[in-house]
């Protein structure tokens, strides 16, 4: 399976919590729910398209708990998001949860790189990560993510946890798909393309690209 990361971001890179005021349990963050004003029919369609490719999910504990609080209650067989999340395997990276009650959930602990490489060798289309900030950072630094699907919302919050922080492994990307919703949300899909290249601008020669 290919490992894909999908996450909602503000223009300044904030990813906490997009759909509710206290989704991730951070008491001092008062800008929750910043995604909601931009939700539209295009967003619903793009989300559905993404979930259609999911054969399994890999989630951090907080994201898993947020999803668990909602999706088991959605029983509409025509809702592809609920159907996938409720029926497909869910792998949770955690050291504190031992007896998950959501069906088809398994705990991932021990060496993260080895565990995820084993999951990726299983047959299927996509092993999907949604949100899961700390897990996403670790997977990025381990070079395990095959595709990054970043939803950039036209808003700046000026505070909050960001997807990448200081110390992230420098990486160049190739844009493979781009679309925009009717409310101006830019959905960008990238694949990692090795280490960044660097250059300089010369007044005499224009742009020079180095290694």
Q: Which helices and strands occur, and which strands form pairs?
A:
Blueprint: E1 2-10, H1 41-51, E2 54-60, H2 61-68, H3 80-87, E3 90-93, E4 105-108, H4 112-120, E5 126-130, H5 133-141, E6 147-153, E7 173-180, E8 186-192, E9 199-202, E10 206-209
Parallel strand pairs: 1-5, 1-6, 2-3, 2-5, 3-4
Antiparallel strand pairs: 6-8, 7-8, 9-10
Explain this structure:
The protein has helices at 41-51, 61-68, 80-87, 112-120, 133-141; strands at 2-10, 54-60, 90-93, 105-108, 126-130, 147-153, 173-180, 186-192, 199-202, 206-209. The protein is globular, with a radius of gyration of 18 Å. The protein starts with a strand and ends with a strand. The strands form 2 sheets. The protein has an 8-stranded mixed β-sheet, with helices on both faces. 21% of the residues lie in helices and 28% in strands. With 211 residues, the chain is an alpha/beta fold.
In short:
This protein has 5 helices and 10 strands.
**CATH class annotation:** Alpha Beta
CATH superfamily: Dihydrofolate Reductase, subunit A
* Strand-residue proportion: 25-35%
Oligomeric category = single chain
Q: Provide the CATH architecture.
A: 3-Layer(aba) Sandwich
Tally of helical segments: 5
Named CATH topology: Dihydrofolate Reductase, subunit A
């Amino acid at each position: 399976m290919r490992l894909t990361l999908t996450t909602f971001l503000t223009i300044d890179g904030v990813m906490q919590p997009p759909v509710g005021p206290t989704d991730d349990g951070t008491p001092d963050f008062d800008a929750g729910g910043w995604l909601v004003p931009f939700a539209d029919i295009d967003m619903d369609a793009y989300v559905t398209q993404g979930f259609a490719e999911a054969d399994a999910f890999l989630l951090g504990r907080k994201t898993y708990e947020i999803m668990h609080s909602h999706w088991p209650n959605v029983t509409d067989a025509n809702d592809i998001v609920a159907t996938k999340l409720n029926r497909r395997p869910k792998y949770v990276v955690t050291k504190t949860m031992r007896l998950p009650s959501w069906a088809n959930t398994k705990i991932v602990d021990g060496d993260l790189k080895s565990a995820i490489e084993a999951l990726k060798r299983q047959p299927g289309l996509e092993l999907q990560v949604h949100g899961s900030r700390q897990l996403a950072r670790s997977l990025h630094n381990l070079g395990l993510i095959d595709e990054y699907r970043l939803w950039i919302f036209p808003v700046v919050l000026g505070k909050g946890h960001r997807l990448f922080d200081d110390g992230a492994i420098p990486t160049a990307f190739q844009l493979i798909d781009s679309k925009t919703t009717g409310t101006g949300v830019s959905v960008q899909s990238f694949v990692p393309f090795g280490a960044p290249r660097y250059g300089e601008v010369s007044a005499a020669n224009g742009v020079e690209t180095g290694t």
